[in-house]
Write a structure and sequence with these properties.
With 264 residues, the chain is α/β, with parallel strands linked by helices. It folds into two domains: 115 residues, Rossmann fold (3-Layer(aba) Sandwich); 95 residues, 3-Layer(aba) Sandwich (Rossmann fold). Strand 4, helix 2 and strand 5 form a beta-alpha-beta unit.
Amino acid sequence: MLTMDTPGPFDSWLSDMDGVLVHEGVPVPGANKLIEKLQTAGKRFLVLTNNSIYTPRDLHVRLKNSGLTVPEGSIYTSAMATADFLHSQRPAGSAYVIGEAGLTTALHEIDYVLTDYRPDYVVLGETRRYDFGAITTAVRLIKSGARFIATNPDATGPSLEGILPATGAVAAMISEATGSDPYFVGKPNPLMMRNALRRIDAHSESTVMIGDRMDTDMLSGLEAGLETVLVLSGVTDSMEEVEKYPFRPNHVKDSVADLIDWIE
């Protein structure tokens, strides 16, 4: 494994969710102990996910039902990052939204009006069922001048039946029809990392980022100046895959169980 002597200590911890803390709905061995030790040690931490379908409360309950206890306030989604970005760019604006409760709730919380009448933005998020009529409306609104935002660039997402087309794939279809590319807010955009750091009053030089994907988690952590740890319990499961990329994480571990001793 790519590693070095135990680094740190780290004041703050950021972690991806799927493939790091849970895998196919089951907690990764050591995940509960890691969360418990972070809380006991008084460390600031956030669980990050590009999934924009669910609210933090939804995810807290879903994780708890799977056997993993993560406080609602310690969950930060790409929908929340998108809301933070829009609030900083155009407070109290309007948007036409393709997405589910995680995204619509986040936008309502920043006093955005959701409308199909001359919206400031078209905001594309993840949903279980993409509706062609809604996509057609989005195309027409963008052609009429609405700015195009997407929560994350992931082209596919997991399901019990196999992979599903996700936000990035649908965004590509809309881009082809409109000639306009979206601004992707979620990972690997380091903006999501910086927003997460601000939420917990953390500093990049004393924060570690744990993830299972080179192209999102490790890239965004690298570009935000964080210590990066790739775990081989999710999408990336071998060093051969790591070697395909022109950048490398600071550490590669089998799972989060190998990081518990890092917490002081």
